[in-house]
């Protein structure tokens, strides 16, 4: 019913269908990045493809039931010779973003002194009215995005037009029995500090439909795949392994449940979309720098995409103290650990861990060729062998490198090995009992605390 809307088949869509069948005005209530605007615009597909209107009419008047003075007079004068035009469904969808500068004249209409002067009409005449956006959506759909941002006095101006169909324009009473569906979108009232929906207006909205974020990682990944710009125009391609897609999506899921991220603000689905686009761009940049025709996205590319994450996180006080970038890195690490456990639930990486603990180190350059990095990884015993479950030995070098790096990052996320900016992946930084006792003794002596 709504092309491009994924994950609402059993929740939001049936409620919208019920509202349409009930001829209700409706409001979509949900946090940012939940496809509210796209759903509103998708409603236009349910309108008739074309309709006849009186030619030149500002409010799409039905030739058989005109409601504006000009069309009534024209039909009385010309009868069956009244000129007719046809309006496409896209012309009968009117959308307005609620901003503080919106006025009643914008929404309902105003007296136009220039029209009155040119036509020789009295200022109080109905022929002097300049119709606003709502009347111009007659026989169609009128949508207001971010309804709480609309000033209270403007919301009050919608009361009669929604219920009784009559309005007053500059004190002049006008009866406008509009055939229009009013649809709104809003963030939950308990979150927004910019304004609220006045109670009588809420009472006149027939159906309140709550949207939500993707329920599963698979649904979220399908949305991100659909929306992200991944198919670039340059020669060659960037391959995105399934675990990279899952990690990028898991970042948003982890952020939505993290205590350091503001729950009332939410974490938009735009976060994984922008992040995955940056991941592809970094892999593309690496292939250009190393003069390779194609590239495979790696875990390092996700860390390079941190700028696409930090701006989409509204942090609580604790998170602000730590910093958005540190929170983003921590979320990536948590996501890597979660996805790593899914792909390697009972993996034996003892040879790899022991090699690092015995002094081995592996620093992966962002500009080195795949052949060079693969040669470095071959020095780590058991690493490429364990990677064969996701990348067989005959797979392209870039994919084998991506899987091996995924294993290393997963071991680091589980505190099996360490990692530093200078040396790359190194042995575990976990301290022995003797080292912990030594450090505690030093602290005790510094503050003269008794030893427990």
Mean pLDDT comes to: 86
The overall number of domains is 2
Biggest beta sheet attributes: 5 strands, parallel
Q: Which structural class best describes the helix and strand composition?
A: alpha/beta
| CA gyration radius, whole angstroms | 31 Å
- Please give the number of β-strands: 15
Uncertain residue ranges: none
The span between the termini is 67 Å
Task: Identify the strand order in the major beta sheet.
Answer: 4-7-10-1-11
DSSP strand content: 5-15%
Percent range of helical residues: 40-55%
Number of helices: 21
Would you mind describing this structure in some detail?
The longest helix is centred in the middle third of the chain and has 20 residues, at 270-289. The N and C termini lie far apart (67 Å). The model has no long low-confidence stretch (mean pLDDT 86). By secondary structure, the protein is of the alpha/beta class. Strand 8 (166-169) and strand 9 form a beta hairpin. A five-stranded parallel sheet has the order 4-7-10-1-11. It has a two-stranded antiparallel sheet with strand order 2-3. It has 21 helices and 15 strands. It has two domains: 12-210, Rossmann fold, CATH 3.40.50; 217-426, no CATH class. It has helices at 12-21, 36-42, 69-78, 104-107, 113-119, 133-136, 152-156, 159-163, 199-204, 217-227, 242-257, 270-289, 299-304, 307-310, 317-322, 324-343, 350-357, 370-377, 383-387, 397-413, 433-447, and strands spanning 26-29, 50-54, 84-88, 93-97, 109-111, 129-131, 140-145, 166-169, 172-175, 180-186, 207-210, 238-239, 295-296, 418-420, 424-426. Helix 10 (217-227) crosses helix 12 and helix 11 runs antiparallel to helix 12.
């Amino acid at each position: 019913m709504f092309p491009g809307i994924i994950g609402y088949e059993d929740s939001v869509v049936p409620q919208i269908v019920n509202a349409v069948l009930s001829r209700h005005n409706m409001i979509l209530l949900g946090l940012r990045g939940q496809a509210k605007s796209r759903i509103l615009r998708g409603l236009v597909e349910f309108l008739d493809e074309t309709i006849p209107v009186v030619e030149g009419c500002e409010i799409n008047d039905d030739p058989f039931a005109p409601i504006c003075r000009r069309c009534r007079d024209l039909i009385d004068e010309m009868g069956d010779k009244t000129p007719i035009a046809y309006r496409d469904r896209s012309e009968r969808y009117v959308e307005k973003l609620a901003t503080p500068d919106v006025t009643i004249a914008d929404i309902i209409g105003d007296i136009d002194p220039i029209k009155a002067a040119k036509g020789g009409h009295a200022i109080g005449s109905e022929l002097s009215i300049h119709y606003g956006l709502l009347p111009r959506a007659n026989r169609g759909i009128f949508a207001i995005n971010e309804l709480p941002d609309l000033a209270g006095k403007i919301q009050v101006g919608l009361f009669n037009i929604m219920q009784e169909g009559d309005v007053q324009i500059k004190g002049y009473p006008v009866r406008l029995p509009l055939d229009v569906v009013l649809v709104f979108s809003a963030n939950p009232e308990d979150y927004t500090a910019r304004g609220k929906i006045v109670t009588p207006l809420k009472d006149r909205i027939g159906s309140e439909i709550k949207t939500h974020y993707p329920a599963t990682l698979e649904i979220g990944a399908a949305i991100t795949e659909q929306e992200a710009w991944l198919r670039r125009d340059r020669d060659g391609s960037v391959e995105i392994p399934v675990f990279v897609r899952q990690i990028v999506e898991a970042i948003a899921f982890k952020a939505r449940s993290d205590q350091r991220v503001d729950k009332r603000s939410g974490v938009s689905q735009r976060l994984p979309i922008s992040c995955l686009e940056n991941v592809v761009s970094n892999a593309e940049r690496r292939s250009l720098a190393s003069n390779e025709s194609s590239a495979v996205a790696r875990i390092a590319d996700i860390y390079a995409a941190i700028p696409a994450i930090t701006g989409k996180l509204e942090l609580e006080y604790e998170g602000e103290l730590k910093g958005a970038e540190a929170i983003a890195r921590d979320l990536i690490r948590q996501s890597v650990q979660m996805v790593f456990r899914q792909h390697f639930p009972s993996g034996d990486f003892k040879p790899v861990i022991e090699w690092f603990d015995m002094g081995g180190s592996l620093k992966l350059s962002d500009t080195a060729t795949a052949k060079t990095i693969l040669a470095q990884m071959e020095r780590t015993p058991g690493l490429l062998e364990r990677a064969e479950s996701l990348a067989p030995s005959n797979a392209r070098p870039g994919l084998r490198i991506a899987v091996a790096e995924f294993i290393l990052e997963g071991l680091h996320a589980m505190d099996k090995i360490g990692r530093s900016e200078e040396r790359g992946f190194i042995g575990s930084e976990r301290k022995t009992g003797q080292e912990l006792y030594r450090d505690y003794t030093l602290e005790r002596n510094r503050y003269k605390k008794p030893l427990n």
